[in-house]
């Protein structure tokens, strides 16, 4: 078998491993609530019912939680992507020694567990009076959410032919215009990927929402799903239905992002378009 055939086979195996749990999640959400779980997994319940979806929306407050999650994502995703792009481009313009120091600091920051920052962040937000608001869920976007996104942009901007940057320098084009008019159009697939990953991270952010948000009116989707997990075990289809509704926007976004990524990708020479 050729290398491409092995890659295709590997992709199909990975897709099958992920598809089976998703299939059981979707089919389980159509079981009538209040009925004991089946002894063995079933591909489709008999009888099937959509009552679990309406119960999940009503009992878990998924409508309000979805709106809160959207508010956080609408602010966090573009802001985080913008900051990561700025920082990644700035790294390419630093002297080699300074660049090495900053890259080393980014790698060190990646090794710091997120849980280690919860207590100091809580103290800071409480001092600022921001506890029990959505601001703590958006604030990480001010530092690009994760150093990983900065490194991804740095590698992408570094792959842009140096001649283009030199031509901008000779034409006395400002760094900001060089970033916006030359660099960013050439790394659009990276922007799509970073935006999609940031959205999923923001959409599924449970730990920070649990620590910083107490008002039920401000619950995001992960907290709303947590409230559904406290239902009786015979009502598990309600939790599964809520999980399907919560995962649907992320799945749709990844489908759209994949289409845009594949449309813009042209093999090893995609930066040279």
In short:
This protein is mostly helical and about 270 residues long. It is about 70% helix and about 0% strand. It has one domain: MetI-like (MetI-like fold, Orthogonal Bundle), CATH 1.10.3720.10.
Rg result:
23 Å
CATH superfamily: MetI-like
Name given to the CATH architecture: Orthogonal Bundle
Biggest sheet details: none
Overall 3D form? globular
Distance between the termini: 32 Å
CATH level 3 topology = MetI-like fold
Order of helices and strands: HHHHHHHHHHHHH
Question: What is the top-level CATH class?
Answer: Mainly Alpha
Low-confidence runs? 266-270
> In total, how many domains does the architecture comprise?
1
Derived structural class: mainly alpha
Count of distinct strands: 0
Q: Provide a count of the helices.
A: 13
Overall mean pLDDT: 87
Strand residue content: under 5%
The level of helicity is over 70%
């Amino acid at each position: 078998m050729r290398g491409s055939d092995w890659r295709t086979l590997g992709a199909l195996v990975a897709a099958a491993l992920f598809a089976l749990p998703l299939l059981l999640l979707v089919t389980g959400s159509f079981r009538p609530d209040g009925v004991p779980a089946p002894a063995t997994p079933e591909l489709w319940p008999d009888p099937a019912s959509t009552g679990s979806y309406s119960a999940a929306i009503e009992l878990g407050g998924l409508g309000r939680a979805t709106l809160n999650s959207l508010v956080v994502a609408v602010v966090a995703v573009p802001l985080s992507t913008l900051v990561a792009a700025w920082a990644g481009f700035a790294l390419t313009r630093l002297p080699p020694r300074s660049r090495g120091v900053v890259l080393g600091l980014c790698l060190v920051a990646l090794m710091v567990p997120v849980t280690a920052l919860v207590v100091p962040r809580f103290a800071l937000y409480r001092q600022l009076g921001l506890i029990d608001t959505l601001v703590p869920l958006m604030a990480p976007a001010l530092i690009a959410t994760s150093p990983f996104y900065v490194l991804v942009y740095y590698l992408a901007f570094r792959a842009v032919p140096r001649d283009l940057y030199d031509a901008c320098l000779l034409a006395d084009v400002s760094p900001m215009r060089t970033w916006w008019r030359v660099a960013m159009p050439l790394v659009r697939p990276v922007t799509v990927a970073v935006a999609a990953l940031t959205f999923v991270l923001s959409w599924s952010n449970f730990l920070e929402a649990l620590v910083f948000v107490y008002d039920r009116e401000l619950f995001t989707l992960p907290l709303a799903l947590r409230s559904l997990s406290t239902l009786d075990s015979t009502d598990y289809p309600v939790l599964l239905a809520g999980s399907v509704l919560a995962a649907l926007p992320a799945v749709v976004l990844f489908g759209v992002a994949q289409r845009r990524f594949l449309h813009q990708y042209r093999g090893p020479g995609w930066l040279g378009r």
